[in-house]
Amino acid sequence: MGHEGHDDDDAYKHHSTYKLPSNTFFCFHSLFPTPAATQHHELAYDLHHRAHPDPHPQSHHHHHRPPRPPPPFLIDTFTHKTHNALGFWHGALEGLPLTHGPNSIRLSPTDPDQYYHTQLSAATCFNLNPHIHTNQHLHIHLSGSPHFTISLTQNNPSCNASLHPFPETWDSLDASRYAHNNHIYIPLSHFHINSSRTLSIAFGGFYTPESVTLFRVEIVDAAAVPKAFPVPPRLDNGNVALRCSRPGAFAFGIDDGQPGLAQEVMRILEEEGIMVTFFVVGMGLRDAETNFSAVYREMLRRGHQVALHSDTHRKLEGLGSTAEIDREIVENIKSFQQILGIETRYFRPPYGTIGARTRQRLAYYIKDPQIINWSVDIEDWLWAGTKTPEKQREAFIRDVKLGGNLAVMHFLSPTTVSYFREIIQFVKSMNATIMRIDQCLEDPNSPPLKISVP
Ligand SMILES: [Zn+2]
Question: Which Pfam families does the annotation name (predicted)?
């Protein structure tokens, strides 16, 4: 179930010409195979390891020669349509158009949210540490465009595909920085995630319509990297969070709104005694007709967090030039300084669209940016304007019960706002403590939690 292409998105746009509803975020959960569906892949995984009991054989016989590098850890040669060389699932998300070759796959992207994944484990967790500690490299043999993102995904703490979020986070590197003569070599240490819980390698964040053909994905010893291959230094690129780290915490990240509903939202927050995070677009803040400058100044005065959401709400990763990405970031930051008098390192990408370039540019302007997506989706973008608006409440409760604790919602529709109090009370009934996103991520610079004693 891709989130793209819903007509409701268009209906939403009439609410506001400058702020579009967030959310075409890829639905990993339903598209990754469930553990039940991958049982035969787990079997293949076992077989693979029996066939290769020692991944790092030592040479004992040729003392006069330097030891041979260990054989590559082969991940994918694109020989089978549904599984890779490890026997695990590989495939496209968000409708990425594919052409299968005999030993290759051609990706013909139309959107930066489209990704092709090749899994390192059967939807559980793969420990990459032995490969990292020996300075091994990810090697990709490809042809065509290098204008995309390579991500390494990290599973959730229970390594459970049926819990939210799945995956928990990922790191993203810019393929074009590492590509040279149809090859890419990336030191595994360039991926900053919890490498004991890796899940998949993913190709996405395409920002041109050029196709790319992949032939081989493997992990190789540093000695196998051709001499003088230009491996660039790693660039900072921030942290992507989909869940609160603080035990028992729950956070609302509220994106775009209708000025006319802001007072009602403020009243509910006040009466329920909770603090939330608002992600605010620069252009809306500057628009005098909306009164948003006064609304968000008041939200700040009351102790809520106000964070960045780009300047004009486009899919930043899909923009053709870094200059355009920069403008979206810089103008948002400037509007915050000039209108609200604040600085923040928290950012939510419009539509949840994120890739290597956006991450790098954020980290260029903001020290250690915190890029916030979500693990609870009220699906207002899908249901708010329909005959079944109560599906918003159902979607919210479903995601919380699956372990999600960081929500995305908007105040674009009266129906969404009408369920707001009820979902807050539902979260409280689950014994969770509602707080700002910086607080739920245990940011040392966040304001102290106000513990209310009943
Ligand atoms: Zn948005």
Answer: Polysacc_deac_1
Return residues with CB closer than 5 A to ligand 1 (ion). Answer: 22, 255-256, 350
Tell me, yes or no, whether 100 and 180 share the same domain: yes
- Domains in the chain: how many in total? 2
Please indicate, yes or no, if residue 42 is contained in any of the structural domains: no
Give residue 83 CA to ligand 1 midpoint distance, Å: 35
Residues 296, 379: one domain?
yes
Q: What is the pTM of this model?
A: 0.86
Q: Is residue 103 part of a domain?
A: yes
For residue 52, report the distance from its CA to the centre of ligand 1, in Å. 48
CATH number of the CATH domain containing 209: 2.60.120
Are both 101 and 144 inside the same structural domain? Answer: yes
Distance of CA 258 from the midpoint of ligand 1 (Å): 12
Residues 6+ apart with CB under 8 A from 283: 18, 19, 311, 312, 313, 331, 335
CATH code for the domain in which residue 261 is found: 3.20.20.370
pLDDT tens digits, one per residue of 221-271: 999 999 999 999 999 999 999 999 999 999 999 998 999 999 999 999 999
390 Cα to the center of ligand 1, angstroms? 21
How far away, in angstroms, is 8 Cα from ligand 1 center?
15
User: How much distance in Å is there from the Cα of 208 to the middle of ligand 1?
Assistant: 23
Full domain range(s) for residue 168: 73-234
Rounded to whole angstroms, the Cα distance separating 416 from 265 reads 10
* Residues 274, 356 within the same domain: yes
Query: What is the 256 CA–ligand 1 centroid distance (Å)?
Result: 5
Tell whether 208 and 268 lie within a shared domain. Answer: no
Distance 349 CA to ligand 1 centre (A): 7
pLDDT in tens, 103-119: 999 999 999 999 999 99
Asked if 230 and 321 sit in the same domain, the reply is no
- pLDDT of residue 147 exceeding 50, the answer is yes
